[in-house]
Amino acid sequence: MDLSKDFTDYTSRLFGEERWQRFLDSFGQEVPASVRYNPFKPVADMPEGEPVPWCKDAYWLKERPKFTLDPLLHAGVYYVQEAGSMFLDNVLRQYVQEPVCMLDLCAAPGGKSTLARAALPEGSLLISNEPDHHRANILMENMQKQGHKDVYVTNNYAKDFKSAKMQFDVILADVPCSGEGMFRRDEGAIKEWSLQNVRKCAELQRSIVSDIWDCLRPGGLFIYSTCTFNLQEDEENVRWIAEELGAEILPVQTSPEWNITGSLLEGFDEPVYRFIPGVTRSEGLFMCVMRKHGESQPCRRPIEKQLKRLRILSDGNPKGEQKGKNIIPAHAETLLVPCGKEKTGVYPVVKLSLEDALRYLHREAITLPEATPRGYVIVAYKGHNLGFMKNLGNRANNMYPKEWAIRNL
Ligand SMILES: C[S@@+](CC[C@H](N)C(=O)[O-])C[C@H]1O[C@@H](n2cnc3c(N)ncnc32)[C@H](O)[C@@H]1O
Asked: Rounded to the nearest whole angstrom, what is the distance from the C-alpha of residue 211 to the centroid of ligand 1?
């Protein structure tokens, strides 16, 4: 690992000697895999692992399996997620007890959105948004696989929500950042880092937050997070949001054993939560929870007229179209049912072996049992739907979306 002098000088001073040494030592340690189980697709046999204490249904695994070769990952039974970013679970369970309308503004690839959907009270609505089109499609795939009817995936900028006059009870801004928390996993992040880039990111973050601020109702919850450690992108931006936009910074319940680092900005003694690798069991996260000044009624669900003003997103449906809709519910059943057949009810389910499930996910032709009825059938592995096939009798067409197919078996 080749950390730049600017980064080393700044961050060693910021962390102090002991934390800095622990951070450096973490580069020689293995990055543990952690997974979060989807409560809407329960399984009987969870893997052996150590529970992540700040998140429900989450575990550090003893060893890193080849996730791609597990059909249950593709069925949305669990999500592979860095443990630190699961801290959102702890925040939502503490502060959100009534159904809410929530916006996850910078959501791809979907770690925090899939988590939020699991943690929000029943009856809540989640708008999971990503402005980058390519990344939005990855987000769509992950949200659809996890499967929940009260989710919309959108492809917009903050200003579009403002023009659509949308209001939310909770907004999560997991903003693009200089990525110091990626250094252990990604050499590229080390190379791209510069003081200038930190400044640019901090400015962009302020403009993203300013643009979305009007969409948070008075009294609403604003969750700000980065995966970086410097003050400009973290405490200084939080202070700016609280003072300039108007918010109270809220404490989150934690345990001393988690070794979370608080504010490192002199004279700013507010509750913020920094996960430093080597100090806390995480790759790196900064999170702060705020309540917007003022009070108003909880938000109602966005109405059709508002939703229509958001950008069209293709839905990864096997037939590749959803005429007349510009928002697609990220709901597994909708996704898996071929276009136009949504309302026809139940499809026969064919159970696949591990070998056939992988071949299906690889988009190969597989032979269905002779007694399989003709027409659309759902193929499943260990009780979880993987997708559709169209059984023609002498052969069956594999309808797994091309862009989701696993590449190498
Ligand atoms: C840190 S990543 C989000 C990770 C995601 N929340 C998760 O947990 O899986 C930041 C995201 O912000 C997106 N982004 C970039 N510019 C943006 C902007 N102006 N407004 C909103 N999001 C933006 C990036 O494309 C990226 O997907």
From this structure: 14
